[in-house]
Specification:
The complex is a heterodimer. Chain A is of the alpha+beta class. Chain A has 2 helices and 6 strands. In chain A, the strands form 2 sheets. In chain A, strands 2-1-6 form a 3-stranded mixed beta sheet, covered by helices on one side. A 3-stranded antiparallel beta sheet of chain A has the order 4-3-5, with no helix packed on it. The longest helix of chain A is centred in the first third of the chain and has 18 residues. Classes of the chains: A alpha+beta, B alpha/beta. Strand 6 of chain A pairs antiparallel with strand 1 of chain B.
Chain lengths: ~130, ~270
């Protein structure tokens, strides 16, 4: 269950970015997770909420964008969706010289700042 | 009105940066790290015992760091080789991270160490995501575990620099289908070398040591199939530079501070 470590890493980076940008709270975090990254989005979602507690990111929504794994055969140039479990052998020539074009991504795409701490009730607006 | 900012930062950037630095620091003093990954019970410790014994017999300065959730049993076993050995107790954590490794190496790793074997927590899922600054990532599977293991754990096997099949002496009894296993490996990591070992019969004795020494001598480790997309993944054998726009944040001045202790006392 390394999703907790991953969630903590996400929260630390977003919290730091929020401070850099002078943001007081975070509305949404957009994450990109490749099919072969070895991370389970639902587990990450659960851990994210726990990891946010007590940080500027608390209350933020995690939006995960899945990236399908694709590969290209270096000698023959054919491209294919590798699937899960992945098949990285070239479907045309059977070659082993393969380039993975996408599928191992694990990155924070962007964040949306909130104007006030997320979850602050309307009557606090005065 | 909400403000949106594009970050495009690798989630594990901190670990990856730390791993790159550790690899460079150790390389500068002639130490290569071998990271061993497998499920529990596949024979990491037994193989390591044999390799440490051989390394000592050949006069290669070698050390081992072994990680478990509990007990110092493995460290006791490995210490019989005479090599410096340290047990890391993870207190339940399912994998090692670079910062943990650095913390345990500080003040312990003898400066003349040529090879450092790291026996990761027995787990084929979580450790796969963490570069530890290793130059050789070895994934083990025993013949009793099933030929489709690489398909079930594609991240771990997909990022291996070397695959070792252990307990080869039990292959017949376990009805191990070698061709099917090799096909599974080729499917998730085309071109990776697969070697067969048995500590009981001595088959493949020293293969791990030989491969590690070859890397120490400058041989290129096999390069696993990596996604070239932004937000770089891991390439255990290949420290790489990354320029602006390639994925992660280094602060406004391009520098990044990593407060940490030196990996070992310099002599």
């Amino acid at each position: 269950m390394h999703e907790m470590s991953i969630a903590t890493a996400v929260v630390e980076q977003v919290d730091a970015a929020a401070r850099d940008h002078g943001a007081v709270a975070v509305e949404k975090v957009r994450l990109q997770v490749g099919e072969l990254a070895g991370v389970v989005p639902s587990a990450l979602d659960f851990c994210f909420e726990l990891a946010c507690a007590g940080t500027l990111v608390e209350g933020a929504k995690l939006e995960t964008e899945a990236v399908a794994a694709r590969a290209r055969c270096t000698p023959c140039g054919v491209e294919w969706a590798v699937g899960m479990p992945p098949d990285l052998g070239c479907p045309r020539c059977g070659g082993a010289r393969v380039e993975l074009l996408a599928g191992r991504e694990l990155q924070i795409l962007g964040v949306q700042w909130a104007e006030r701490p997320v979850g602050a009730s309307a009557d606090q607006e005065g | 009105m909400c403000r949106t900012v594009e970050l495009r930062q690798a989630v594990l950037a901190r670990n990856d940066d730390g791993a790159r630095e550790l690899r460079a620091e150790l390389a500068a003093r002639g130490t290569v790290v071998v990271n061993l990954l497998s499920s529990p019970g596949s024979g990491k410790t037994a193989l390591l015992e044999a390799e440490l014994g051989l390394a000592r017999a050949r006069g290669v300065p070698v050390a081992a760091l072994t990680a478990d959730l509990a007990t110092e049993n493995d460290a006791r076993r490995l210490a019989r080789s005479g090599a410096p050995v340290k047990q890391v107790l993870t207190d339940g954590l399912c994998h090692l991270e670079t910062a943990m490794l650095r913390e345990h190496l500080a003040g312990w790793l003898p400066p003349d160490t040529r090879l450092l074997f790291v026996e990761n927590v027995g787990n084929l899922v979580c450790p796969a995501s963490y570069d530890l600054g290793e130059s050789l990532r070895v994934v083990l599977a025993s013949v009793t575990e099933g030929e489709d293991k690489p398909l079930k754990y594609p991240t771990a096997f997909g990022l291996a620099n070397l695959v070792l099949v252990t307990k080869a002496d039990l292959a017949v009894a376990a009805e191990f289908d070698e061709a099917a296993f090799l096909a599974s490996v080729a499917r998730v990591n085309p071109g990776v070398e697969v070697l067969f070992t048995s500590v009981r019969t001595g088959q493949g004795a020293g293969v791990l040591l030989d491969r590690a020494l070859a890397v120490l001598d400058g041989a290129e480790a096999h390069r696993p199939v990596m996604a070239g997309a932004p937000g770089h993944g891991h390439s255990p054998g290949h420290p790489h530079a990354h320029g602006p726009g390639e994925g992660h944040h280094h602060g406004d001045d391009g520098a990044h501070a990593h407060p940490h202790a030196p990996v070992a006392e310099r002599s």
